[in-house]
Amino acid sequence: MAMKVKVENMVACITLDTDLDLKRIAKEVEGVENPKSFPGLIYRLTDLKVAFLIFRTGKLICSGSRTRSNIDNALEILLKKLKKAGVRLKSNPKVEVVNMVSSASMDFKVNLDTIALESWNVEYEPEQFPGLVYRLDDLNTVMLIFRSGKIIITGATSKKQAEEAAEKTKEMVLSLNASLP
Known about the structure:
Blueprint lengths: L5 E10 L6 H7 L3 E2 L7 E5 L4 E5 L4 E7 L2 H17 L9 E12 L3 E2 L1 H7 L3 E2 L8 E5 L4 E5 L4 E7 L2 H17 L3 E2 L1
Antiparallel strand pairs: 1-5, 1-6, 2-3, 3-4, 4-5, 6-11, 7-12, 8-9, 9-10, 10-11
């Protein structure tokens, strides 16, 4: 049976085809934050649990969402507000999910010491961090494996990729006889 993977956070890079007047946006769009030591603006949608970083170049970074449709809904709300502040787009925004953080459980405990000794693509320093870092270069993902059998998957750009990474991680643990009762 395939492991159940839960998306915890998605990060999307959104490209608008226009430069943005950040001073005007900060003045005219309610809820926009303008931190002094940051080169952009911050806009949060607490009901959708997402935040946007807005840059002069027309780049937006959206984080906090667990689904692509939630990103699209939040972007639609932000674009309506930007339009009221005079922003005119020549084309539809380009939205690309660039990173996901997901979690999964192997349903058994793991001997991290065995993996650290037997696998070459790992980092394990239990005095500094309780998890083992396992890299899957073929999938461009990094796993944090914990003794409890929990896995945090980073670097995936789709749920399918995260699921594949979780399965490969479980296979590696089992192949090294690193599962515990």
